[in-house]
Amino acid sequence: LIALAAFGVAILSAIYAHRAASHARRANEITVKNALHPHRLAVFTALVEFLHFCSTYRTLQSVGKVKGTNDLITRLDRFKWEVAQRGPLDMAEVEKMIEAAEAHAWQLQRSLGRLGEPTDHRADEEYFAEEDKLHKVLDWFASQEKEAPSIFEPYLKITQQPN
User: Fold this and answer.
1) Cβ contact 75:50 at 8 Å
2) Separation between Cα atoms, residue 134 and residue 58, nearest integer Å
3) What does the alpha-carbon distance between residue 115 and residue 92 come to, in Å, rounded to a whole number?
4) Phi/psi of residue 80, each to 5°?
5) Sorting pLDDT into bands at 50, 70 and 90, what band is 148?
6) Which of 23, 87, 152, 162 lies 20 to 30 Å from 14, alpha-carbon distance?
7) What does the alpha-carbon distance between residue 38 and residue 128 come to, in Å, rounded to a whole number?
8) d(Cα 153, Cα 95) in Å, to the nearest integer?
9) Is 91 in contact with 40 (CB distance < 8 Å)?
10) How many CB atoms sit inside 10 A of residue 69's CB?
11) Rounded to 5 degrees, what are φ and ψ at 94?
């Protein structure tokens, strides 16, 4: 009888220990996610600002706010530095988006370099083809700027431990 009671207590202890370990793991996950929240938010802000800057670069160039592609490359370097300062944030989709933004920024730089200043008006097929490529890249930046909040949402959402 005593052995049976001890066996029952041991089983209950094992069940409670398993539940406690499960809750502790979940609490750790929430703590890590909440600790990363400010860094992830900073990366989100930096990414959206960079995407907007790139999507409006040709317009900024037309009105004289930026000259050539030096401002673009400077902004790209600053963006990469801002993201690197936040460390690994465990956001696979976002990291892919950042890599794609960097690659498209280089494409933008090449297209702008080939086209020259917005005041240069050449009328050849090569110029128009390059201008079409430029518009596609600019449209990509604009579409990614709109998609960024939905990609970041799972990483920025603060969850609570279930009851």
Assistant:
1) yes
2) 9
3) 35
4) -60, -40
5) very high
6) 162
7) 44
8) 14
9) yes
10) 19
11) -70, -40
Q: Tokens 């401002």 identify what position?
A: 71
pLDDT-derived band at 162 (thresholds 50, 70, 90) equals very low
Secondary structure class of 77 (helix, strand, coil):
helix
Q: Which backbone phi and psi does 65 adopt, to 5 degrees? A: -70, -30
Residue 153 to residue 115: CA distance in whole angstroms: 37
Tokens coding 52: 């907007």
Element (H, E) at 143: helix 125-156
**Does the structure show a pLDDT above 70 at 134?**
yes
- pLDDT of 137: 95
* Euclidean distance between CA atoms 126 and 154, whole angstroms: 43
Rg (alpha carbons) of the chain, rounded to whole number: 26
> To the nearest whole number, what is the mean pLDDT of the chain?
87
CA dist 93 and 115 (Å) reads: 32
Q: What is the pTM of this model?
A: 0.77
Place of tokens 């938010």: 41
Question: Which residue bears the tokens 């892919």?
Answer: 96
Q: Angle 83-54-112 (CA atoms, 0-180°, nearest 5)?
A: 125
Looking at residue 26, what is its pLDDT? 85
More confident residue, 78 or 27: 78
